[in-house]
Design goal:
Elements lengths: L1 E10 L2 E11 L3 E6 L6 H9 L6 E6 L2 E2 L4 H6 L1 E4 L11 H11 L4 H14 L15 H13 L5 E5 L7 H14 L4 E5 L3 H7 L2 E6 L2 E7 H4 L7 H18 L1
Parallel strand pairs: 3-8, 3-9, 6-7, 7-8
Antiparallel strand pairs: 1-2, 1-4, 4-5, 9-10
């Protein structure tokens, strides 16, 4: 469903992503984890087509993200980190705009907006402008735009950021419901979220993949990731410091 092959991206002298190769299958939720600056958001932006890699290839359902960008993006739903913009639009207008951008019109568009509004319990705020909503409500509207076209690959960068506990539960249940016949890549700083939602864990550090394994192989006896995460990221940093 999603394949990254020797993907690299630099910003000046900073190598944000370094020869990254990962394959993602359908019917799985994959946690993309790592410390700050590990390259998670840069990787997601390249997958979405928002940012071009310096080297390597990314394919979505067999479509090259660079050479076949429009076709590739048609199968992708993307929630960026800290989404913003379109603040003057009411939530309903925003969702209609996003649906039209995905080629939905008429009854198909109305059905899609109704479906995502129900999934994310947005009916009470449909007539309110985005810039008048709390961060949590805005986040839910942006999650809605990511799934409005029922994409086969869903990339969620910190999807529960800014949500209260009840809203977090709603989004987490939605992720579980969306898993079937899809690939979901979820970046989060909340390890408990990865423990609850994900089948597989990919850990990045300094732009490289340092672990790719089923969740069950990484958790301790209490089902927790924290100890293994610290061990991997700290030992990797130590090796890099010794070699520099």
């Amino acid at each position: 469903m999603l394949q990254l092959t020797d993907v690299s991206k630099a910003f000046g002298t900073l190598q944000a992503v370094d020869r990254l190769s990962i394959s993602f299958a359908s019917n799985e939720v994959v946690a993309l984890l790592g410390p700050n600056g590990a390259g998670k958001s840069t990787t997601m932006r390249m997958v979405s087509g928002f940012m071009m890699p310096d080297e390597g290839q990314i394919t979505l359902c067999g479509h090259d993200v660079i050479k076949q960008s429009q076709t590739a993006q048609s199968v992708l739903g993307y929630l960026p980190e800290a989404p913003n913009g379109f603040g003057h639009l009411r939530v309903a207008e925003f969702l209609h705009f996003c649906g039209q951008a995905r080629g939905f019109f008429g009854d198909k568009l109305l059905h899609a907006v109704d479906r995502v509004s129900q999934s994310l319990d947005l009916f009470s705020v449909l007539r309110r402008p985005l810039n008048q909503l709390s961060k949590g409500w805005r986040q839910r509207a942006w999650v809605a735009q990511a799934i409005i076209h029922e994409p086969r690959v869903l990339v969620l960068d910190e999807p529960t950021d800014g949500l209260d506990p009840n809203q977090k539960d709603l989004v987490r249940e939605l992720v579980k419901d969306l898993k079937k016949d899809r690939t979901i890549i979820l970046s989060t700083h909340i390890l408990e979220e990865a423990e609850e939602l994900c089948d597989r864990v990919v850990i990045l550090n300094q732009g490289r993949c340092i672990e790719d394994a089923p969740l069950s192989d990484l958790v301790d006896g209490q089902g927790r990731l924290a100890a293994r995460f610290r061990e991997l990221t700290q030992s990797h940093d130590s090796r890099l410091n010794l070699s520099s």
